[in-house]
């Protein structure tokens, strides 16, 4: 029963992050970290060497499903690494930003800055 | 500013806010805690040899000042390293919640010293330091909260134990607990 509920949440979250949520306004931006939740994950990890799944979840006020879906995308892109370990008998998932992820955030910040300068210049 | 610009501005604010909030998780320095614990063990060793209660109190007050200085320095260093400002939202909130219980502890120390009730000091100190850590740690990582609770328990135990055990309780709390949790925080939360 519990498992079904969890899967249900995950599916809802999957629908919630459908492509229509990605704004089309900034085509040159790295779409991967442009999405709010993923940008949040990367930003939080930029301020911390590692964060546990639950810490990220409460920090970003997210749900299990939403966070894991987005974290997985960042993991697939090589922006974050995920380590799984056991703390006593409790499984523990922790995330860390890779050098590639940090560069991506810096690139993204550079883009935002350029957009702002352009907007102010007009 | 056009829509694109305000969107970028909004995103920059979001990144900044997220980094600040995340920064609060590591406002507590781990290795700093280990150093503070070590000086407390040293103070315990010295204070055992004190001839009068006033001398004993003097040792612990000196240790309190030393620990405070180490704590402030270590927090500042860690904040700089993780690029969070020391007086921005999270750090300030942490400090604000930490200060009242510590201030109450200082005032009670003064009152108890005047009344000559030195035996109550270890329990009061442990209890109020624990309170400070629990309230300050409410927005920090779990080990901080656990450490504060254990300090409070130790304080409660000290208050109901013979006064002669006081120094041992102080060594166990400000030495043992501080070092143990310092190592945990340093290992898991980057220094």
Give me a quick take on this structure.
The complex is a heterodimer of chains A (122) and B (191). Chain A is an alpha+beta fold and 122 residues long.
Molecular structure report:
- The complex is a heterodimer of chains A (122) and B (191).
- Chain A is of the alpha+beta class and 122 residues long.
- Chain A has a single domain, classed as Orthogonal Bundle (Arc Repressor Mutant, subunit A).
- Chain A contains six helices and three strands.
- Chain A has helices at 2-16, 31-34, 36-46, 53-59, 64-76, 99-121, and strands at residues 50-52, 80-87, 90-97.
- Chain A starts with a helix and ends with a helix.
- Chain B is mainly α and 191 residues long.
- Chain B has helices spanning 3-23, 30-48, 53-81, 89-115, 121-137, 142-159, 166-188.
- In chain B, α6 (142-159) runs antiparallel to α7 (166-188).
- Chain B is elongated and about 75 Å long.
- The model of chain B has no long low-confidence stretch (mean pLDDT 87).
Q: Pairing-aware structural class of the strands and helices of chain B? A: mainly alpha
Q: Please state the CA-atom Rg of chain A, rounded to the nearest Å.
A: 16 Å
CATH superfamily of chain A: Winged helix-like DNA-binding domain superfamily/Winged helix DNA-binding domain
Which consecutive residue ranges of chain A, at least 5 long each, have pLDDT under 50? 1-27
CATH class division of chain A: Mainly Alpha
Compute the average pLDDT of chain B: 87
> How far apart are the termini of chain B?
42 Å
Provide mean pLDDT of chain A, rounded.
Answer: 79
Q: Secondary-structure element sequence of chain A?
A: HHHEHHEEH
Helix content percent band of chain A:
55-70%
Largest sheet of chain A: 3 strands, antiparallel
What is the N-to-C succession of helices and strands of chain B? HHHHHHH
Helix segment tally of chain B? 7
Q: What proportion of the residues of chain A form beta strands (DSSP E)?
A: 15-25%
Helix content of chain B: over 70%
What is the count of structural domains of chain B? 1
CATH architecture term of chain A: Orthogonal Bundle
């Amino acid at each position: 029963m519990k498992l079904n509920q969890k899967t249900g949440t995950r599916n809802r979250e999957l629908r919630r992050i459908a492509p229509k949520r990605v704004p089309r306004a900034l085509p040159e931006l790295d779409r991967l970290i442009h999405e709010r939740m993923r940008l949040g994950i990367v930003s939080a990890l930029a301020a911390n060497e590692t964060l546990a799944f639950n810490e990220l979840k409460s920090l970003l006020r997210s749900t299990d499903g939403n966070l894991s879906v987005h974290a997985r995308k960042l993991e697939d892109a090589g922006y974050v690494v995920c380590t799984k370990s056991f703390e006593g008998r409790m499984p523990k998932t922790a995330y860390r930003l890779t050098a590639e992820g940090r560069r991506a955030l810096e690139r993204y910040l550079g883009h935002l800055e350029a957009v702002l300068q352009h907007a102010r210049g007009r | 500013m056009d829509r694109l610009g305000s969107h970028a501005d909004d995103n920059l604010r979001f990144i900044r806010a997220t980094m600040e909030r995340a920064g609060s998780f590591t406002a507590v320095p781990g290795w700093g805690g280990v150093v503070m614990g070590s000086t407390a063990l040293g103070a315990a060793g010295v204070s055992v040899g004190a001839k009068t209660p006033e001398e004993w109190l003097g040792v612990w007050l000196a240790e309190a000042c030393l620990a405070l200085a180490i704590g402030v320095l270590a927090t500042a260093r860690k904040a700089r390293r993780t690029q969070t400002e020391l007086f921005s939202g999270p750090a300030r909130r942490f400090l604000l919640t930490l200060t009242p219980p510590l201030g109450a502890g200082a005032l009670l120390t003064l009152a108890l010293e005047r009344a000559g009730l030195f035996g109550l000091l270890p329990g009061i100190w442990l209890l109020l330091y624990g309170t400070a850590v629990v309230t300050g740690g409410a927005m920090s990582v779990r080990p901080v909260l656990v450490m504060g609770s254990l300090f409070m328990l130790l304080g409660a135990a000290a208050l109901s134990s013979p006064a002669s055990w006081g120094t041992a309780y102080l060594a166990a709390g400000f030495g043992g607990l501080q070092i143990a949790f310092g190592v945990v925080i340093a290992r898991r939360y980057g220094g």
